[in-house]
Structure formats: structure tokens, C-alpha cells
Design a protein that fits this description.
The complex is a heterodimer of chains A (265) and B (464). Chain A has 265 residues and is mainly alpha-helical. Chain A has helices at 4-13, 19-29, 33-40, 44-54, 68-92, 104-124, 130-138, 141-150, 154-163, 168-176, 180-190, 195-204, 213-230, 233-237, 248-251, 255-261. Chain B has 18 helices and 22 strands. Classes of the chains: A mainly alpha (265), B alpha/beta (464).
């Protein structure tokens, strides 16, 4: 159904990260917000994405923010970098979603919700590491990978899933020995993202805990955050609720803290 | 969201957070309609992967339960929860619980009339005495041995001796159970359990599709366990007379065991006997009498008098059947399956050793049966995706093979629907060895196709 060759061909087709984006990220890395904004102005699609994302209600700005230097200024280095990575990942998303009932708007909404809540979590955990902030950007890549790999096999997969409750990650692992999150890791490597980013996302799969205590803990928070978001009606209707398995035992020890932070009653 | 159906239980498995907003999104109108029309014994919602729920969240599913109960006689409820979740649900609904709660899905299977594993030793505890009794009665009816702990202390004490029990049941609540006619398979006989007053409702409670499927796949003896029947009216009489006529077409036998006519007209008995139904006092009168079993057709499924021949409609669609099989095997194994030869003949299996088989019937615009015969190693390989681990457990492999053949059946249905041909598929049947398969299909002509998979061959046989 899906072979290793198909996965390799998918990864091969991923373009290198755009030059402007690379330059903007390196300038942000050294704290040059104004210069970074100036470079970013050269990519109109990036500019439109940034404007669109920071003006979503979840960011809570009263007035529309349209200037890139203003956006970077408000977001700061960590969140600006996170948003740029979000943009990079969104470049991989298909023009038309078929397997999942998504569209660009809904996908950006998911990115924004995850990013904003990840920020809340990291503040709560008193973590201020821009790579850890950026890690959440890679998580939705797992959805894009699933769509890309399984789209031509929808009927077969649906038939299979009426007989046995298998998530896409398990199907891929059993067929090819590779997980969706391994593919995400390869994307991260191709785009020269910090290795910590892919380590956290791997742990967030819930089936591959990290030996590193800090990364494993962050993986738990990210896993729970993902399912918190995927339990929203729009994403359930988009058929995202069961695309990977929720590992309830994995997050058991942080659930109460998470529930209190997200004010779940 | 669509439920997964296994052993006649349909299970929804939502994940994450279940509140008033999210729960509605799990069930679109088509999902509800499809669920209401499912021919299953139970419809359950698994809470295994739900980390948070509130009453509003559960209410959405409970509304679905209401709809199901109204249209269908299946039992409904929740399963796969811990003690905390169980207490929460009981607190939410207090005395209004009409649905059931099963601590695990495996426990729910014990209450399904179609669950084939019987004679299990089961320890039961519930703080509610009437529940303890109700659980014990249901399980006893399904052929299990129950041990009831009368107090929590006794339960804690007994459950330590885990080797004495196959299952330990607590945190379980029986609401209104299904009113379908319970079905179980013993050897080559099918036993239906009927009870109380039999009236026009019997035609709703009896799964006629399952019965027809059983006839199609070769069952020839059907026993109605009627010990608990009080009486029947003319509508039920007509129903059983019709059933006997259709069984006669297949040379099948229908028996009633333990039926008393104290409160029903004795003429009903004569009418039923005239239509070919046999009456026995005790179940063991049949099941322990090998000669009688043979005479009634249960020792062999091959004594079909009116064998049907493969017709043009089926042969025309043959490529679809082969495609469905090849596509499914390829999907499950990621390896190429190659057609080697095809011919119209009686089933020929050169080497019977180490082979297992599975079959599935289809009926509707056209009807017939697809049989797949695998060397057990290839069956294992083909089932790896579904099993997820390397196993030599033959029961598990056969169970999974049934799922695989079910997928083949689903694919056949889809491919034929593309041509405007509407069929339904029956439940799959598996065979531990080739001899038991041959009892069913030995003298039938069909299309035999030898398929090769990674150099090994397996057989596809299409017959009627």
C-alpha cells in the first residue's frame, strides 16, 4: 500500500527552505529583529501569512497588526522564529486536502492554536528556549505527511479501519517500519531545524518516549496539547481526532496540571 | 466517526476530550443512520482514549443510544473505563441509567450472544445485589460458569487467585440488554435462544441475514433453545413455518428443544411438525447423540441436495472478485500477488497439510461465496498488519484471517457497486484445516485461481 520508496520520494520532493526564510531565521537567531523584518518583506507570501496568523483572535490584538517589523517586535525572537517555522511547514500543505477535511484557513488556525497554547505551557514550565518554542511548528507536519502518503489509498484505508481501529501512524510503522514522526524528523533535518525540535516531536508521538527527561516531559505536554486541540469540533469534523493514537497512560502524570492550566472543568 | 464492528459488537472510539461541543462533531447524520441500521448485538462507546468527559459530552452518545433502542434491539452502552470514570458516569445518571457499562470490551464480548468463547469461569462482584444476579444470569445464559462474590471483602479475597478465573468482572452495570435472539455455534450446529412470549416481534429480533448466511456457508442444523418460552401466537407460528420452508430448500433441519405447549395451542405443535420442525425434550438429546447429529446434518455440512451452479453473472464479475482479493492482500503485505492459473473445476488442494481457510458469502443482485486457502505461514504474513506482532496463536491468526476476508468482502461490495451491482456480504467463516472446508465445498464446481505471493501460492475459489 505504502512503501519505503514512496516515503523517500515524498521526502526528496520537499524543496529546500526558501533563501529569504533562511536569512530571516538566522537574523532572528542573533536578535536582529529589524533586519530580519526587512528581509522578510521581500517574500510577499510570508508577509501575508504572518499578517494573517497574528491577527487571529487567539493572539488577542485589538488593532490589526500589518507591519512585519511590528509583528516581530510584538512576538519577540522565540515566537517570531516559531511563526516562521509554521510558515515553512504550511508550504508543504497540499492545495486541496482530500483525506482530511481541511483547508488553508483551518490548518493555519490549528497552527495558531497550537503555537499560542504551547507558549502558555512553556511559560508555565518557565522554559525560555527558542528551539523548544519552535518545536510545536513541526507537529502539524505529521498531518501533512499523512495526507500526502495516504491520499491515494483512502478507500483501502477506510475499509481497513472499519475492521480494525488502526491509526495512520501504526499502519505506516507496520507496513514500512517508519513512523509519521520519523518522516517529520527527516523534514526537520532537511530544513536544518535544531535537533531538539525533532526530538520533542518524536517524543510527542506518545509511542517513542525520549531517554532525555526534559525532552520526554515536553513530549508529554505536546502530546496532550495535540489531543486537546484535536478534540475541537472543527478538527473532529476534519477527521483529525484519530489520525494518531492518543496514549493516555503517557500523559497521566501531567494531566491535572494541564487541566488546571487550560482551565478545563 | 464510524464504529469498528467485531464479534457482533460495534465500537466507537473517540479520543481526547469529550464535552458538549466536541461530542456532537463525532457523529454526523450519516454516521447515526448507518449505526442505527447496523445488524449487531451491541453498540458501545469506548472511553479508553478519553481523558476528560462531562455529562454533556456523554449525552450526545446517549441520544444516539435512544435512537438505536427505538429502531433496533441492540444493547447499548460505554466500555473501557477505570473506576473513576465508572463512578463519574453513575453519578451523572444516578437512577436514569438504562444503558450498560462494561469495564472492558473483553467483558462486553462475554455478554454478546454471538461471542463464540464459552464455558469461561467468571468471578463477579457488584455492590448492587440485583446487578450481581442480573450479570450472573446473563452470563449463565451465554454458557459461562459464574462465581458471585457477595461482599467486597470476599471479592478482594477471591480475585487474588487469578488462575481460577478467566475473567473478573467488577465496575460493570447491565442496563436494558439486547432483545435479539441470541445465537451461538456448537460444532456444525447453530443454537438460537428464544424466551418469553413469542409474537410478531420475533421477526425483528431474529437476525434473518445471519441465518441465511449460515445456510449459505453450509450450516445444516439449527436448534432453538426454547426452555424459557412461555407461549407463542399465530404470528410467531407463521414465522417459524416460513423459516422451516426456507431451511428445506437447503436440506437443513430446524429443531426446538424444551418447548412446552402448556399455554399455547397444541395444534401449533402439529403445524410446526408438519412444516418439518423437530421437537426434543433436552439439548443433550441432540448434542450428545452422534448418530442423531449425523442424521440431522450437523456432523457434516456437505449434504446439500440442491447444489447451485456457478452462473454467468458471477463469472462475468470474476475479475472483480480476484481484484478485490489481490488488492487486499497487496495492501496488507506491501508485496505483489500474481495470478498464476485459473480454471472452472471442483476445488483441488494438492497438499492439505498446514493450510487454513476462510470464506465469505455475498448476496443481493448476485450471490455466491469466495473461499481463500492459505498455507498458515502466508496467512500469518497477510495478517501481520492487523495483528501487529509475530504470533503462532492459531486462534488469533484465524480471527484475523476472518477480518482480512471481511475486508476482501467489503472491497468486492465496493467494486461491484461501481458497476451498479448491489450486494451485501455475510459474516466471514474460518476453517482450522482444509478438511472442514471441503465438507462445505467439496462437490461444488467453481472457479479456482492459483495466486502466488512472494513465491508461495494461495488459492482463491469462487462458488455458489
Amino acid at each position: 500500500m505504502i512503501t519505503k520508496d514512496k516515503i523517500e520520494s515524498f521526502i526528496e520532493k520537499i524543496p529546500p527552505s526558501p533563501k529569504i526564510l533562511k536569512e530571516t531565521i538566522s537574523l532572528l537567531n542573533v536578535g536582529e529583529l529589524t533586519k530580519a523584518a526587512k528581509v522578510a518583506e521581500g517574500d510577499l507570501a510570508l508577509k501575508a501569512y504572518l499578517k494573517n496568523i497574528v491577527n487571529k483572535p487567539i493572539y488577542g490584538f485589538k488593532n490589526e497588526v500589518s507591519d512585519i517589523s511590528q509583528i516581530f517586535g510584538i512576538l519577540g525572537v522565540s515566537l517570531s522564529q516559531q511563526t516562521l517555522y509554521n510558515y515553512m511547514i504550511s508550504l508543504l500543505s497540499p492545495n486541496k486536502w482530500v483525506l482530511f477535511k481541511l483547508n488553508a484557513k483551518l490548518f493555519h488556525e490549528l497552527q495558531a492554536n497550537l503555537s499560542k497554547k504551547w507558549e502558555t505551557i512553556l511559560k508555565h514550565l518557565k522554559i525560555d528556549d527558542k528551539n523548544i518554542y519552535a518545536a510545536i511548528s513541526l507537529l502539524p507536519a505529521s498531518i501533512i505527511v499523512t495526507e500526502a502518503l495516504f491520499v491515494q489509498k483512502i478507500d483501502d484505508v477506510n475499509l481497513l479501519r472499519t475492521t480494525k481501529a488502526l491509526d495512520f501512524n501504526t499502519i505506516l510503522i507496520r507496513l514500512c517500519g517508519v513512523s509519521l514522526f520519523d518522516v517529520c524528523e527527516q523534514i526537520a533535518q532537511k530544513w536544518e531545524m535544531d535537533s531538539k525540535i525533532s526530538q520533542i516531536v518524536q517524543a510527542s508521538s506518545g509511542v517513542k518516549p525520549s531517554d532525555n527527561k526534559e525532552i520526554n516531559q515536553l513530549g508529554k505536554w505536546m502530546h496532550l496539547l495535540l489531543f486537546y486541540e484535536l478534540s475541537k469540533p472543527a478538527f473532529i469534523e476534519a477527521r483529525l481526532n484519530d489520525f494518531v493514537d492518543f496514549q493516555i497512560e503517557y500523559i497521566e502524570d501531567i494531566y491535572n496540571e494541564f487541566a488546571s492550566l487550560m482551565e478545563i472543568q | 466517526m464510524k464504529p469498528v464492528v467485531k464479534n457482533s459488537i460495534a465500537v466507537f472510539s473517540p479520543q481526547g476530550f469529550l464535552d458538549g461541543n466536541s461530542a456532537g462533531a463525532f457523529l454526523c447524520i450519516e454516521d447515526i443512520e448507518a449505526t442505527v441500521n447496523l445488524k449487531v448485538d451491541m453498540i458501545l462507546v469506548s472511553l479508553k482514549k478519553v481523558v476528560f468527559f462531562n455529562r454533556n459530552g456523554l449525552d450526545t452518545f446517549i441520544k444516539l443510544f435512544y435512537k438505536i433502542r427505538k429502531n433496533n434491539h441492540a444493547a447499548v452502552g460505554f466500555c473501557d473505563y477505570d473506576r473513576k470514570k465508572y463512578v463519574a458516569i453513575k453519578n451523572f445518571y444516578q437512577d436514569e441509567i438504562y444503558f450498560s457499562l462494561f469495564k472492558t470490551l473483553d467483558i462486553a464480548y462475554l455478554f454478546s450472544s454471538s461471542f463464540k468463547n464459552q464455558n469461561k469461569n467468571i468471578l463477579i462482584y457488584s455492590s448492587d445485589r440485583s446487578q450481581r444476579t442480573a450479570i450472573a444470569i446473563e452470563l449463565h445464559d451465554n454458557g459461562h460458569n459464574t462465581i458471585i462474590a457477595q461482599s467486597l471483602e470476599e471479592f478482594d479475597d477471591k480475585k487474588e487467585k487469578t488462575n481460577l478465573y478467566d475473567y473478573i468482572i467488577d465496575s460493570t452495570f447491565l442496563g436494558q440488554m439486547g432483545q435479539k435472539v441470541a445465537t451461538r455455534v456448537t460444532g456444525n450446529a447453530i443454537i438460537y435462544t428464544i424466551s418469553m412470549f413469542l409474537d410478531v416481534e420475533i421477526s425483528n429480533k431474529f437476525n434473518i441475514e445471519y441465518h441465511n448466511n449460515s445456510l449459505n456457508v453450509g450450516f445444516r442444523l439449527f436448534i432453538f433453545d426454547a426452555y424459557k418460552v412461555i407461549s407463542m401466537n399465530i404470528h410467531a407460528l407463521n414465522f417459524f413455518s416460513r423459516l422451516a420452508s426456507s431451511a428445506a430448500e437447503y436440506n437443513a433441519t430446524i429443531c426446538f428443544v424444551g418447548m412446552k405447549f402448556d399455554k399455547a395451542p397444541e395444534t401449533f405443535r402439529d403445524t410446526l411438525e408438519d412444516s418439518g420442525i423437530l421437537f426434543y425434550e433436552q439439548m443433550d438429546d441432540i448434542l450428545q447423540n452422534k448418530e442423531l447429529l449425523k442424521e440431522l446434518g450437523a456432523s457434516s455440512a456437505s449434504n446439500v441436495k440442491n447444489k447451485r451452479v456457478l452462473n454467468k453473472e458471477n463469472v462475468t464479475e470474476l475479475p472483480k472478485f480476484i481484484d478485490a482479493t489481490v488488492i487486499t492482500i497487496e495492501m496488507m503485505t506491501n508485496a505483489k500477488a500474481i495470478k498464476e492459473s485459473a480454471s472452472v473445476q471442483k476445488l483441488i488442494i494438492n497438499n492439505k497439510e498446514g493450510k487454513i481457510a476462510s470464506s465469505i458469502g455475498y448476496y443481493g443482485d448476485i450471490d455466491g461465496m469466495v473461499v481463500l486457502i492459505f498455507p498458515s505461514g502466508i496467512a500469518k504474513k497477510a495478517c501481520e498488519l492487523l495483528i501487529g506482532e509475530n504470533t503462532d496463536d492459531l486462534e488469533m491468526i484465524l480471527d484475523t484471517l476472518a477480518e482480512l476476508v471481511n475486508i476482501v468482502g467489503g472491497k468486492i461490495k465496493t467494486l461491484l457497486a461501481d458497476e451498479g451491482i448491489s450486494v451485501n456480504i455475510t459474516l466471514p467463516r474460518t476453517y482450522h484445516d482444509v478438511d472442514s472446508l471441503l465438507e462445505v465445498v467439496e462437490n461444488r464446481k467453481g472457479v479456482q485461481v492459483d495466486l502466488s505471493f512472494n513465491g508461495d501460492t494461495f488459492l482463491f475459489f469462487l462458488t455458489r
